[in-house]
C-alpha cells in the first residue's frame, strides 16, 4: 500500500474500494479479532467455517463500504486469507491458515510488537484514517483507539492515543527507531506498550507517595476513616476464567484497558474474579463500554459486570472489615518484631493461613488476603482519570 523514499519515510496511497473490503474482512477473520468475536465464532461452527455473505453484511463497517455481494466476492480474489464458496454466497478463513493458540506465550509475543502512540487530533481522527496511516509503516494486525467516558456528555471520547500491533517485531522496531513520526504535521509520542505500562505504574506510585503527608496522633483516626471510604461503582466481577489465568494476567489486562486496579480477589484455577478499581463508577463505566459485556483474558472470553445495590454494599462492608483485620495483624507482627519475636506464623501463599470464608453475599466471592499483605488499598485511591 505504500512505497518507501530515500529517507525510509513511507507515503500513503489512497485505498481502492476493493482494498478496503479486503482489509475489513481480513480484520474480522484475523488473528486478533476472530478469537474474541463470539458472534463470528458461533457462525463458523455452523458450516465448516463458511459464513453467508448476508450474515457478513450485518457488520456495520463492511455494509458501510458496500452491500453488493458481487463486489465483495470480486474484491476477495486478492485475499490470501479468505476463500469464497463455489456458489459465491459464502466466505471463510482459509483452512490452511489456522488460528494461533492464545496462551501466555502468545500474549507475551503480541506485546513484543505492540506500540503505544500519542498525539492524534481528538475530534477528527477516525479508525479508517489510523489504519491507513499505520499501514504505511506496516502491515499491521490491529489498531485500538483508547477512550474514556465523559460523564457530562455520557459518551466515550477518544484520548488521542492508540495501541498498534504490527505484523512483526521488526516492523514495530523500525517504526519506533525513526527519530520523528508525524501525523498531519503533529510529532507523535511513541514507545513500546510494555514501557508505557511500566511508566504509568511508576507514575501512580509517585502520586501515591506524594499524596502521603506526615500525620500526628491527633488526626490519625480521621485520616484512616477517610481512606476507608471505598468508591462506589468500582467493583468488577469477571466470570469464565480458564485454568491458566493468573492474578497478574487479570491485572495486566485491565491496566491495558486503561483501568487502575486497587485489589484483585482471585486464585489460579478459580472461575470467578472480583476486582476493586480506583475511581467512582470506574467499573460501571468500563462495563458499559464493553461490547456484549465480554472481555478476553488469556484466550478465554469472560463475562464482566459491575456490582450494584445490596450486593455491592455487602461486598464493600466485607472489604472494610478485611482491611481493618489486616491492619491489626500487621500491628501485632510489628510489636512482636520489636520484642525480638519471630514476627508471625509460617503462613501460606501470600500470608493466607486459614480456610477461605464465604462472602456475606449468597453465592458471592470468597475472602482472600490482599495482593500485598497488610496493605491498605484505600491508600491507593487517587485521581484515576488518565489524560493520555
Number of helices: 13
What characteristic shape results from the CA principal axes? globular
Q: Major sheet: size, sense and barrel closure? A: 5 strands, antiparallel
Q: Output the helix-strand order.
A: EEHHEHHHEEHEHEEHEEEHHEHEEHEEH
Oligomer: single chain
* Count of beta strands: 16
What radius of gyration results from the CA coordinates? Answer: 25 Å
Terminal CA distance reads 30 Å
What structural class is derived from the secondary structure elements? alpha+beta
Average residue pLDDT: 79
Strand order of the largest sheet: 13-14-12-16-15
Give the helix level as a range of percent: 25-40%
- Please state roughly what percent of the residues sit in beta strands, choosing from under 5%, 5-15%, 15-25%, 25-35%, 35-45% or over 45%: 15-25%
- Taking pLDDT < 50 over at least 5 consecutive residues as the criterion, the unreliable ranges are 1-14, 341-363, 365-387
Amino acid at each position: 500500500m505504500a512505497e518507501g523514499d530515500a529517507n525510509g519515510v513511507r507515503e500513503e496511497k489512497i485505498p481502492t474500494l476493493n482494498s478496503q473490503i479486503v482489509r475489513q474482512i481480513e480484520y474480522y477473520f484475523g488473528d486478533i479479532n476472530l478469537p474474541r468475536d463470539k458472534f463470528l465464532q458461533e457462525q463458523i461452527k455452523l458450516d465448516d467455517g463458511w459464513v453467508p455473505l448476508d450474515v457478513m453484511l450485518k457488520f456495520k463497517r463492511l455494509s458501510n463500504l458496500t452491500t453488493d455481494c458481487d463486489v465483495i466476492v470480486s474484491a476477495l480474489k486478492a485475499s490470501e486469507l479468505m476463500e469464497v464458496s463455489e456458489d459465491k454466497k459464502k466466505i471463510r478463513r482459509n483452512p490452511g491458515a489456522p488460528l494461533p493458540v492464545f496462551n501466555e506465550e502468545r500474549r507475551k509475543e503480541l506485546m513484543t510488537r505492540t506500540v503505544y502512540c500519542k498525539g492524534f487530533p481528538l475530534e477528527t481522527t477516525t479508525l479508517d484514517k489510523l489504519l491507513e496511516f499505520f499501514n504505511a509503516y506496516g502491515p499491521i494486525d490491529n489498531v485500538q483507539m483508547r477512550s474514556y467516558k465523559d460523564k457530562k456528555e455520557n459518551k466515550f471520547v477518544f484520548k488521542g492515543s492508540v495501541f498498534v500491533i504490527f505484523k512483526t517485531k521488526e516492523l514495530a522496531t523500525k517504526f519506533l527507531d525513526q527519530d520523528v513520526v508525524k501525523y498531519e504535521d503533529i510529532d507523535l509520542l511513541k514507545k513500546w506498550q510494555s514501557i508505557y505500562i511500566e511508566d504509568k505504574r511508576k507514575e501512580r506510585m509517585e502520586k501515591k507517595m506524594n499524596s502521603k503527608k506526615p500525620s500526628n496522633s491527633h488526626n490519625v483516626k480521621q485520616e484512616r476513616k477517610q481512606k476507608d471510604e471505598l468508591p462506589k461503582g468500582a467493583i468488577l466481577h469477571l466470570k469464565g476464567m480458564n485454568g491458566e489465568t493468573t492474578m497478574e494476567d487479570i491485572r495486566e489486562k485491565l491496566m491495558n484497558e486503561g483501568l487502575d486496579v486497587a485489589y484483585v480477589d482471585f486464585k489460579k484455577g478459580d472461575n470467578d474474579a472480583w476486582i476493586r478499581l480506583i475511581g467512582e463508577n470506574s467499573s460501571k463505566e468500563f462495563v458499559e463500554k464493553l461490547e456484549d459485556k465480554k472481555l478476553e483474558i488469556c484466550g478465554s472470553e469472560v463475562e464482566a459486570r459491575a456490582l450494584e445495590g445490596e450486593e455491592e454494599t455487602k461486598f464493600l462492608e466485607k472489604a472494610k472489615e478485611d482491611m481493618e483485620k489486616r491492619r491489626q495483624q500487621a500491628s501485632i507482627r510489628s510489636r512482636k518484631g520489636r520484642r525480638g519475636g519471630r514476627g508471625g506464623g509460617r503462613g501460606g501463599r501470600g500470608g493466607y493461613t486459614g480456610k477461605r470464608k464465604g462472602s456475606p453475599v449468597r453465592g458471592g466471592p470468597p475472602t482472600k488476603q490482599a495482593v500485598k499483605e497488610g496493605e491498605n488499598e484505600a491508600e491507593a485511591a487517587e485521581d484515576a482519570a488518565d489524560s493520555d
